[in-house]
Specification:
With about 290 residues, the protein is an all-alpha fold. It has one domain. It has 12 helices and no strands. The mean pLDDT is about 85.
């Protein structure tokens, strides 16, 4: 596969995923939308593992990785889908752009990583200022519950980042698709429980756009995007891969404005720019340290 084509695929999938999350819940409900996505994802990933005869390890380290991956997937996605009802789709991408910053903080607190250099702290401070700019003016984001939605998505980013840090500590070397199948399988009963607690209702008619969005997320968002990402990081320098988190929020904001009629105010742009500048500073320092070690 062409590496540039795979790179472009990741950018497009990550840029369109927040908008697809919003569309998939319309007329279906967030609980059923995320459950259906995960069911499709585990079926598709499982078929690929079987057809390509990819090993599916069941040793102790692999089982721990599946458990941690499944729990973080459940927490992150459940909160994201709930918050997406009240937050602009582009802003969801901006929030998830904070993942590297959140992972660095959690790694320092819980794992003892000594990586919080002054430059990285400056980057985190810029990100925090940008986040505060967006939160303080949450009433301009188009929904009365926007602040609650923003907080839910921010919690989702924290859960997701914590899962990454924990998985790094486990150090499992199972094939990525096997980890995907294991994590999705662990998360499925939890998503099913959320759907049951929310009333376990099936819509009489699934809106075409919602149905298409669910299928898109199940196939591309949960399986193909994951596989492309691991393919790209094996063939490109870390600096180029890191640019994805800087590109996708801007594209997602523009797509939300163009396709979903989401208003992008000046304060939202200012907050977004501050977050992306902070992330750039953080990534630059991280890559500089990597080059010094190698």
């Amino acid at each position: 596969m062409s590496v540039p084509l795979a790179y472009l695929g990741i950018v497009l999938i990550w840029s369109t995923t927040p908008l697809a999350i919003q569309w998939s819940s319309q007329g279906v409900g967030f609980a059923l939308a995320v459950l259906a996505r995960m069911v499709i994802g585990v079926v598709v990933a499982g078929l690929l593992v079987a057809l390509w005869r990819i090993p599916f390890p069941l040793h102790e380290r692999a089982r721990r990785a599946y458990l941690v991956g499944g729990l973080s997937l459940f927490g992150g996605m459940a909160l994201t889908y709930w918050g997406a009802r009240y937050v602009h789709s582009g802003l969801i991408s901006v929030m998830f752009g904070l993942s590297p910053l959140a992972a660095a903080i959690l790694g320092a607190i819980f794992v003892g990583e000594r990586s919080l250099t002054p430059v990285k702290l400056i980057g985190m401070l810029l990100g925090a200022v940008g986040l505060a700019t967006i939160f303080i003016h949450g009433d301009t984001l188009g929904h009365e519950h926007a602040l609650a939605g923003l907080f839910a998505v921010l919690c989702a980013v924290t859960v997701y980042s914590g899962g990454m840090v924990w998985l790094k500590q486990i150090g499992d070397d199972s094939p990525p698709l096997a980890t995907t199948v294991g994590s999705l399988t662990v998360s499925l009963p939890l998503f099913g429980l959320v759907w049951w607690l929310s009333g376990a209702q099936l819509p009489a008619v699934v809106p075409p756009r919602a149905g298409a969005a669910v299928v898109y997320l199940g196939v591309f968002g949960s399986v193909i995007g994951f596989a492309l990402y691991y393919y790209v990081i094996k063939h490109l320098e870390t600096s180029k891969v890191a640019l994805i988190t800087l590109i996708t929020p801007v594209i997602a904001l523009l797509l939300g404005n163009w396709l979903n009629g989401e208003t992008i105010g000046l304060r939202l742009w200012i907050g977004t720019v501050l977050i992306l500048v902070g992330l750039s500073v953080h990534q630059w320092e991280m890559l500089a340290g990597f080059r010094r070690r190698t």
